[in-house]
Amino acid sequence: MTEDSATTEEFRRDWARYHSTCLPLGWMLRNREGSPWVRFHALPGSKRYADNKAERGIILSRAYALGDSLLGADQWCWVVEGEIGDPSATSEVAYSGTETDDPDDPVWSFSVRRERWRAGASDAKLLSIADDAPRRVIWMRCENGAVFAPYDGGFDLFPTSWEAVNQLQAAWPDWLSDHPAGL
Q1: What is the 3-state secondary structure (H, E, C) of 6-70?
Q2: pTM, whole model, 2 decimals?
Q3: How far apart are CA 113 and CA 122, in angstroms?
Q4: For 115-149, how does the pLDDT look when each residue is reduced to its tens digit (9 = 90+)?
Q5: Which of 18, 21, 22, 70 has the most crowded CB, counting CB atoms within 10 A?
Q6: Domain range for residue 43?
Q7: How many domains does the chain have?
């Protein structure tokens, strides 16, 4: 077994252990009934997109503060990048599937790699996500399955317990949504 195939198999086992009911996409994780989840906005006033360097700095600052709290600074994570496309198009696909059982649904293909969560290490990727890049990216802590899922406008966090959700909300109350459903 090659290193790539061993990594792929290890990710598949971890994903099945923690999140077997859905694809590695933030909105699918959020839609699982009873799953601990909280959303934080990337910019003050629920502003969706950055207009300048200062606002991009706020996005990165919030991303790393939340990521450090959820994933743990310097902890091993799976970085899962997904895009719609033919899973046979690349040998790097570790996981694939559709959002529903409808055969006409597009196929998502996911590549994975293990890396340590470190502040400053993913600036370009986080800013690309904030600018609504078509590629989706999540980070999942290898040790416990906690997921950090940035999107254009904020960050969906999937801790391992509702107690952890409460702690995150208490730490950054000004970053939370006013929407009744937390969106």
Answers
A1: HHHHHHHHHHHHHHCCCCCCHHHHHCCCCCCCEEEECCHHHCCCCCCHHHHHHHHHHHHHHHHHH
A2: 0.89
A3: 13
A4: 999 999 999 999 999 998 877 899 999 999 999 99
A5: 70
A6: 3-175
A7: 1
